[in-house]
Specification:
Blueprint: E1 11-17, E2 20-25, E3 31-35, H1 44-52, E4 56-58, E5 62-67, E6 70-75, E7 79-80, E8 87-90, E9 93-97, E10 101-102, H2 110-120, E11 131-132, E12 135-136, H3 138-148, H4 157-160, E13 165-167, E14 178-182, E15 188-196, E16 199-204, E17 206-212, E18 216-219, E19 224-234
Antiparallel strand pairs: 1-2, 2-3, 4-7, 4-10, 5-6, 5-9, 8-9, 11-12, 13-19, 14-15, 14-19, 15-16, 16-17, 17-18, 18-19
Helix pairs in contact: 2-3
Length: about 240
């Protein structure tokens, strides 16, 4: 598994082979294969409208949407097109959703929204390619949290490291800044979100809170540094 698509996220079909469909995500242009039973086609007009829209995003860890007495689990970070506070509409199908959601136009304190949403994933297990609270990797975590406030990020950590304004010193950080870490070869392999000065929340084994300084991430339980600091980026 290289990544996951959440409910309501749109993509272009780039190919098909037997029971598999090759897709390119609209949000991050990531490519992969999905089962042919797990998607539905949109007209070019609907796709263009959804691609240009700034839809609401679900905030509950998981909450059901209903349609024709059928319950569909909606994960945090899912897209809710044309959401009016109770209903959303996808490809002419109307769903009822009474969970929490937020749209970019309603965000007043982006730093606080990032902090609250980041903490909802606390202790979620690490999963390579994951983007949900039931399994998530480091860059999937930062990507979805930023998606909630309407800021698009690429899928992988090294790609995300090219976005935002570079900060020179760790003491300049504020809530929501992204921090990146490299391996012995100098390749960026990990990322996390500044929760408070001196604290980082990141997916490493699980979503956890650790201390951070100019050397990197320090794990108090193991009493050692686990990730070497490479650079800091500010997107807000």
């Amino acid at each position: 598994m290289v990544s996951q698509l959440l409910f309501g996220e749109i993509f272009e079909v780039a190919g098909q082979k037997e029971k598999w469909v090759r897709v390119i995500g609209n949000w991050d242009k990531y490519e992969g294969w999905i089962d042919h039973k797990q998607w539905q086609a949109l007209s070019a007009k609907v796709y263009k409208k959804l691609a240009a829209d700034q839809p609401a995003v679900s905030l509950d860890l998981v909450r059901s949407a209903t349609r024709d007495n059928t319950h569909i689990p909606i994960i945090i970070g899912s897209t809710l097109p044309q959401f009016d506070g109770l209903n959303f509409k996808l490809n002419k199908e109307k769903y009822i959703y009474n969970g929490q959601a937020i749209s970019q136009k309603d965000i007043k304190e982006a730093h606080e929204v990032i902090k609250k949403c980041a903490l909802k994933y606390l202790n979620a297990p690490y999963l390579w390619g994951g983007r949900t609270p039931f399994g998530i990797d480091c860059s999937g975590y930062t990507q979805v949290v930023y998606k909630i406030i309407g800021v698009p990020l690429p899928r992988d950590a090294y790609q995300q490291a090219e976005h935002g304004r570079l900060l020179n010193f760790i003491h300049e950080v504020q809530t929501g800044d992204l921090v990146f870490f490299d391996n012995e070869e100098g390749n960026i392999t990990h990322t996390g979100i500044i929760l408070n000065p001196g604290e980082i929340i990141h997916a490493s084994g699980k979503v956890r809170i650790d201390t951070i300084d100019h050397y990197g991430i320090y794990n108090k339980e193991d009493q050692k540094y686990t990730h070497k600091l490479r650079l800091i980026r500010r997107l807000l």
